[in-house]
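anyone seen this seq b4? input:
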Amino acid sequence: MRKFKGFKSGPVPQIKMPESFFTELVPLINDLAELQLTLFCFWALYQKEGEYRYLRHNDFAESEALLESLIVADPLAAPLITLDAALKKAIKRGSLLTAEIKLANGAEQLYFLNTVTGRKAIASIQQGEWQPGDGHNPVEILPPRPTIYQLYEDIIGTIKGTMVDALKDAEREFPYPWIEEAFQLAVEHNARKWSYVYAILERWDREGRDRGLAGGHSQTDGKEYISGKYAAYIKYKPDE
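predicted toks r here
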């Protein structure tokens, strides 16, 4: 039996998981390969960017880690056969959604998690309003990113007192790309304060963030982000 060496010490990238995954979905899954596939989807989609995050069949079939785990799930079957069976089960169960897109050389299936955004993507594809512009868009292991602690120290200053706990909570609560962009907005708007960064994150979480991770913003002065419980404490300074 191969042994796990343990989780690394210090800050490591975190992947946000909905509570309903553990409380509602996991009790329904009775197949190891399906569970492994579903967990892979959360990790792989975290590597993606854009308003609609999706996976192609190649993203599953070309992942050595996933295929190796599927061999453990069913040692007697070829891993690609186990993969396709697990995909069918996840789709039938409703944890994954799929839609077909037309390509010049045929058709291809896209796979989405069954989230609000995933359902919106499926509807947009079916109505002919959206299709992916990137024909490849592979899943890759992203290079190491600065941690939330490094961002704070680089942009705001030394971490003091209970700020460690506040940053730790924010890291668990919000996706990392949001955190990174919120810090960048603080720099752009000359508001290098944690209260400003947190106000942006809180508003995105409360009201939704439909601009896309790489998209622009409808207002450039930063005032649109100043709301929530910290709003009264933020002294807004527009760009000079």
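The chain has two domains: 19-126, 148-233. The longest helix spans residues 32-46. kinda curious what u guys think
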